[in-house]
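Incident review: delayed structure delivery

Summary: a single-chain prediction request sat in the queue longer than the usual turnaround. Root cause was a stuck worker, restarted by the on-call engineer. No data loss occurred. The affected request and its eventual output are reproduced below so the record is complete for anyone auditing the incident later.

Affected input:
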Amino acid sequence: MAKARTAEILVGHVRVNAIADYYDIPQLKELANTKIQHIIETNWSPHGFSEVVKEVFNSITDRELREIVSLAATAHIEELLEFEDFAELDVMSDFAIGIIRNMLTYTYKAGEGLTSRELRDMKHLSGIKGGVACHFIK
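Output delivered after worker restart:
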């Protein structure tokens, strides 16, 4: 499955989920979610994933599908942050993107054996008094 084609197929299944939800056909909604999950697990591509996120969070109320998409984004966040269109999604706020980037930095630094106190005290992490700045990994 080609990279861009994967996103097109996912969006198609997302739309089936929306139709199934509108007409109250739970089995069809579940089938669409199963197919979405399978495609994400077997043919992951960050290309076009922003369109999938937009479709899900702007037009779908299904919590299960939102969770599937959120978990996929979490698992591939480093890769997704490389795409400008992901960080600029309408469903994302600058605050949320800043937190994500800071958490990645924090996780990397914690993996280097720094204590939580050392992490808090790091100059490049404390851009505001008592808080965490949002200026990492651009």
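Verification: The two ends are 30 Å apart (CA to CA).
Action items: add queue-age alerting; document worker restart procedure.
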